[in-house]
Amino acid sequence: MSSKCDKAADARECVVRRKSGAAETERQAFGKGMRDGIPIGLGYLAVSFSLGIVARNVGLTPFQAFLASLLCNASAGEYAGFTSIGAQAAYLEIAAVTLIANARYLLMSCAMSQRMRPGISIWHRLFMAFDITDELFGIAIARPGFLNPFYTYGAVLTAAPCWAFGTALGTLAGSLLPARLVSAFSVALYGMFLAIIIPPGRKDKVVAVLVALCFAASFAASKLPAISGLSEGTRTILLTVLLAGGAAALFPRDPEEET
Amino acid sequence: MRNPYLYILIMAGVSFAIRALPLTLIRRQIRNRFIRSFLYYVPYVTLAVMTFPAILHATQSPAADLLALCAGVIAAWLGADLFRVAVLCCGIVLAAEFFLV
User: Fold this and answer.
1) Please, how many CA atoms are within 13 Å of residue B30, restricted to the half-sphere of its CB?
2) pTM for the model
3) B87 touches chain A (CB under 8 A)
4) Measured between alpha carbons, how far is B92 from B74 in angstroms, rounded to an integer?
5) What share of chain B is helix, strand, coil (3-state, %, to 5)?
6) Which end of chain B has fewer beta carbons closer than 10 Å to its terminal beta carbon, N or C?
7) Which residues does chain B have within 8 Å of residue A43's beta carbon, measured at their own beta carbons?
8) How many CB atoms lie within 10 A of CB A95?
């Protein structure tokens, strides 16, 4: 597609096609999504495995852990929920804890709403919403033009079962995998994050500086007396609102240059 | 123990509502420049905040994590895709821990 877009005469048409997503068939998008879902699934296996161990510790069965992961698709949210289950929390409390731990998905859903093709059906909206996670949101939003539901479905189809089965396995098997492998798997998720946040910095210097600033601020927040006492989920929410808000106030983006 | 299935159902309901409400209710383009810019920056900030310093505690050895972080940043900067960066980081941790742990 890029080679066609190099021609000045075709430029306008290419922009239109890219925005409409017509240059990519549903099947192609689905396949691409499945492929991009592989590293996410690998990372999920390792992370959900340790989440399964938490589920076991609070007395959930492998099936219950599987069900929770299949329906919730949230690392921090499920961890907070499982802990509350272990503490025999009130039902209202577990709802509030889940809400706070997952608040960033609300922001991501807002961001996605701005990239939906006009007139797309409510079913696509609901199904795309079901598995908004840091990773699946990241790879979907990183693509140009309107979001393609089929790309998301492909990625979800690869990643979501890994998440659910990994949790059940963790509950079932505990620490059966060799520590070396678990250790190596665990870093996959972060490698993936880097692949999402680093490349845009080449074109957009604000993003490059912002990412460096986030690393520093996040490190400081994990050490400072008052803030480090907050849960990781709460710190993420606070820093996200502060830093993204600051960047938006100081460096508002020109609507023309938006992808 | 209270009913674990009811717990799980509540967790699932709240998790879904948070994700589905904005995506189904916000139908028009947000014109406000600040909000648009804010939403543009949010994913980079959230992921960056969650990556560091958490990556240093991901594996058995912070030194291996630091190596993986540096390699991952360089590889991503040079244009390696998602899968390659993730595999590279895993490989580096696996190799480094043979010497470090």
Assistant:
1) 20
2) 0.70
3) yes
4) 13
5) 80, 0, 20
6) N
7) 86
8) 18
Q: How many domains does chain B have?
A: 1
Query: Looking at residue B66, what is its pLDDT?
Result: 96
Length of chain A: 259
**Is B90 in the A-facing interface, judged by CB distances under 8 Å?**
yes
Domain with B49, as residue range(s), is 4-100
- Structure-block tokens of residue B62: 């912070």
- In chain A, residues with a C-beta closer than 8 Å to the C-beta of B44 are 196-197, 200, 207, 210-211, 214, 244
From its phi and psi, is residue A73 left (phi > 0), alpha (psi between -120 and 50) or beta? left
pLDDT of residue A181: 79
Are A154 and A33 in contact, with CB atoms under 8 Å apart?
yes
Higher pLDDT: B50 or A35? It is A35
Structural domain spans, chain A: 22-194, 201-259
Segment B37-74, tens digit of pLDDT = 988 888 788 889 888 998 898 788 999 999 999 999 99
